[in-house]
Amino acid sequence: MANNFTENSNLSWQLSAYLQGNWSQQFENLTDTLTQQIIAVNATRLRLPTVNTLLTTLKRAFSLVKEWAGIGVMFSMMLLAIFVCLWCLCRIRKSQKSQAAMLVQAFAAVEAGQSPQAWLSMLTDKYMSVLPLLSE
């Protein structure tokens, strides 16, 4: 069987040239070769696309889309969780800085001979407002 269409075309041209000349064994071989190639091409079966094949292809494509969408949603959820964790850490850090500043003020008040109760009451007020939320 010929490997490509160019070779088949060349064989067809050779056949035309032989038809113009005398009948020979080479011409006989060439017609046999072309006949076998024509039979091979005609015997080739093609699968006709059917509705079932189309539906199967669409199901596979939709399945892939669902998988990638699931991966995208999972990635988005992970990013959201990371963002929430960072936001909570920033709030905790801000609260710690505020509490540290109040303690410094309370110690400064003690060193100055004043009562640190105002600063300490601010700390306890903050903790008391948070404690009911934590106990639920």
Strand elements, count: 0
Shape descriptor reads rod-shaped
Q: Sketch the topology as an H/E string, one letter per element.
A: HHHH
Number of helices: 4
InterPro entries: Viral_Envelope_Glycoprotein
Transmembrane segments: 68-89
Protein name: Envelope glycoprotein
Keywords: Membrane, Transmembrane, Transmembrane helix, Viral envelope protein, Virion
Description:
The structure is a single chain. The protein has 136 residues and is mainly α. The protein contains four helices and no strands. It has helices spanning 5-20, 25-43, 51-111, 117-135. Helix 3 (51-111) runs antiparallel to helix 4 (117-135). The model has no long low-confidence stretch (mean pLDDT 80).
Topology, please?
Layout: H1 5-20, H2 25-43, H3 51-111, H4 117-135
Helix pairs in contact: 1-2, 3-4
